[in-house]
Write a structure and sequence with these properties.
Helices cover 32% and strands 21% of the residues. By secondary structure, it is an alpha/beta fold. It has two domains: 175 residues, NAD(P)-binding Rossmann-like Domain (Rossmann fold, 3-Layer(aba) Sandwich); 226 residues, 2-Layer Sandwich (Dihydrodipicolinate Reductase, domain 2), CATH 3.30.360.10. The strands form two sheets. It has a ten-stranded mixed β-sheet with strand order 14-13-12-11-7-10-9-8-15-16. A six-stranded parallel β-sheet has the order 3-2-1-4-5-6, with helices on both faces. The protein is globular, with a radius of gyration of 21 Å. It binds nicotinamide-adenine-dinucleotide.
Length: 430
């Protein structure tokens, strides 16, 4: 086993719950061998930041699209990283020297790819939403614990100093007791049109792209990027941009389990095109706290708005017994007291590089990952619950301990999804 790999493994083997890592001087030295899977829009953002770092050595880029793979390999080479381009995640996982893998694939690959990576003993950075359904999100959490690896979810607001400051205020009681947290996603998306199935482009390994999702023809308005608006690959815009704000709401509420009750309505009230998830959505959920009190979570989505809502395009509001805090996690926040007196405000940009640094520090020296799998699972799970309500037009009673929908046998199976039978990436135990 190469020395660098041994050093990083040594650090993780000392973990007790997958999140605490012993400090070793050797693990803090050298450049950590890493890989990136999924080199599209967000993957390229990661790639540019990672290749600029002095503390990692990018050894693989992996993509199902040969054109994107070639473009990524060039960016890496220009940044001084001699990467091996591959189109199959398993080739990355087979290389024992790789310590950590970034996943910026479409959502249906997140938990399956993350679980395979954790089971290969490697640390996982996985984009949000970290799951495509509630059950596989829980399996991702368990894979991190079982393998004693760090899992960091791509909700970089958690490593953004402005947002951290807001959370300190909330947790220190600046607005009193927070009874309601709201998240919204209000922006102008585009019409995806209506297309018929066609042959995939020659540069795309479409079977690899689809992976464990049910077999379906290729549609040119899904790949790349727009797959997030289709049932089999994404969780709509709530699981896409919305999940950032859902996650901030959970953070403010200190929420590390799924809600007890969920209701949501929504639909395609604006776009006349192929996209399947709602463009207009409103969800309300209740969380029964350990203190015997119930908190409320609200989510609003209008992805046809050529204006921003309450000052921020994608935002949060926390309503407390003494004041409220309104925030756009990429912009800043304002804290109001009684009679709407502005008490404090702060501005600042989101810190993706800082999120990478926190992940690497968690591997190297036991710093706590800011966006651990459990936080990602809860935020993604809330999106899945809201989406189940919208698709079925039913209210859900949910048991956060067993993570099962209760009292409605017809809904119970919706905590999972259908996988392609026998595919190598289907998570075990799903
Ligand atoms: N954290 C953020 O702020 C942020 C912002 C944008 C996107 N994202 C997330 O990043 C992820 C990617 O989004 P995107 O907009 O870049 O999508 P995209 O479609 O542009 O990129 C996905 C890439 O993954 C590749 N891919 C698909 N299946 C693969 C497989 N089996 N193996 C290897 N590569 C595979 C595709 O070919 C494509 O290049 C999504 O989960 C999205 O939610 C996060």
């Amino acid at each position: 086993m190469p020395a660098s790999r041994r050093a990083f493994l040594h650090a993780s083997a000392a973990s007790t719950a997958g999140l605490a890592f012993a400090k070793t001087s050797t693990a803090a030295e050298g450049r950590m061998p890493i890989a990136l899977v999924g080199c599209g829009g967000m993957g390229t953002n990661h790639l540019k930041l990672l290749t600029a770092r002095k503390d990692v050595e990018l050894k693989y880029v992996c993509d199902a699209d040969a054109n994107r793979l070639a473009a990524a390999a060039k960016i890496a080479a220009d940044g001084g990283h001699g990467v091996t381009p591959v189109n199959d995640l398993r080739k990355v996982l087979d290389d024992k020297s790789i310590v950590a893998v970034w996943h910026a694939t479409p959502d249906h690959w997140h938990s399956p790819g993350g679980i395979l990576t954790a089971d290969a003993g490697k640390h996982v950075y996985v984009e949000k939403p970290c799951s495509h359904n509630i059950r596989e999100g829980r399996l991702l959490v368990e894979a991190g614990i079982r393998n004693k690896v760090v899992i960091q979810v791509g909700t970089q607001a958690r490593s953004t100093p402005t947002v951290q400051e807001a959370m300190k205020r909330l947790h220190d009681g600046a607005i009193g007791e927070i009874l309601v947290a709201k998240a919204w996603n209000s922006q102008l998306r585009r019409n995806l049109g209506k297309v018929k199935p066609s042959d995939p482009p020659a540069h795309l390994d479409y079977a690899m792209w689809q992976g464990m999702a049910p077999e379906a023809p290729f549609y040119s308005n899904r790949v790349p990027g727009m797959w997030r608006f289709f049932f089999d690959y994404g969780a709509g815009d709530m699981g896409n941009d919305g999940v950032h704000n859902v996650d901030v709401a959970c953070w403010g509420l200190n929420l590390l389990q799924l809600p007890n009750r969920a209701a949501a309505l929504g639909g395609k009230h604006f776009f006349d095109d192929d996209q399947q998830w709602p463009d207009t959505q409103c969800a309300v959920m209740e969380i029964d706290g350990a203190d015997g009190k119930t908190r409320q979570f609200i989510y609003e989505q209008r992805i046809w708005s050529p204006y921003v809502q309450e000052e921020y395009e994608n935002g949060n509001a926390f309503y407390g017994t003494k004041g409220m805090l309104v925030m756009g996690h990429t912009v800043g926040w304002k804290l109001y007291g009684e009679r709407n007196k502005l008490i404090e405000q702060m501005t600042g940009r989101v810190d993706l590089a800082g999120h990478h640094t926190n992940f690497l520090n968690a591997i190297r020296n036991g710093e706590k990952p800011n966006a651990p799998a459990i936080a990602g699972h809860v935020a993604a799970g809330i999106c899945h619950l809201a989406n189940i309500c919208v698709r079925t037009r039913k209210t859900i009673a949910f048991d956060p301990k067993s993570e099962q929908i209760v009292g409605d046998a017809a809904l119970a199976g919706m905590v999972k999804r259908k996988y392609r039978e026998g595919h190598w990436a289907v998570p075990k135990g799903v």
